[in-house]
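Minutes, project check-in

Agenda point 3 was the complex the collaborators sent over. CS summarized: two entities, 228 residues total, and the question is how they sit relative to each other. Sequences were read into the notes so everyone works from the same version.
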Amino acid sequence: AQSVTQLGSHVSVSEGALVLLRCNYSSSVPPYLFWYVQYPNQGLQLLLKYTSAATLVKGINGFEAEFKKSETSFHLTKPSAHMSDAAEYFCAVATPGGYNKLIFGAGTRLAVHP
Amino acid sequence: SAVISQKPSRDICQRGTSLTIQCQVDSQVTMMFWYRQQPGQSLTLIATANQGSEATYESGFVIDKFPISRPNLTFSTLTVSNMSPEDSSIYLCSVEVGAGYGYTFGSGTRLTVV
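CS then shared the predicted structure for the full assembly.
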């Protein structure tokens, strides 16, 4: 069975500082991996996805993530945090092959302080 | 990517009643997924709906409580039956448009049961 673990339910950074949100996955087959963002009282927005192409994936709003098979990780980073990045971030995993369910991690709430 | 229209966007319901949530996609999709997001929590998959067959429910969710219809390739409904305050959550539908293209989510239905 697939699963996702997000380390740190709350992360706080200063504006301009590096953002690092951690995600580790468990999967019996090479997975598809996703990061979603949810702003307060809004729906889910796809930040980026890994689908077995390049291991370093660039997404929207300056975010990127690197797939590391040896570490079973897919951490999300952004070089410089902005106040508007404050939101809930979810890592998710799916089985390649199409039309398979997406399994979410518990989420990490990012706070950005001036 | 697909565009999903979900309604209602929010509702306040009396306990013991039922609410049907609609999800309309602007393209034909094989699978539709229904998720629940309880307050302050991550997303949990309720069931997977395939057109022309019964939905497949995840552990902890049953058809009597969450009946699902999937009459065609662009539409699905989720009913929350005999509601209690514990059913107060955001309910979201999702589709995957082709393998590896990512999953799109509706804007969600925010349900409050009083």
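Noted in discussion: The mean pLDDT of chain B is 93.
Follow-up: revisit at the next meeting once the mutant set is ready.
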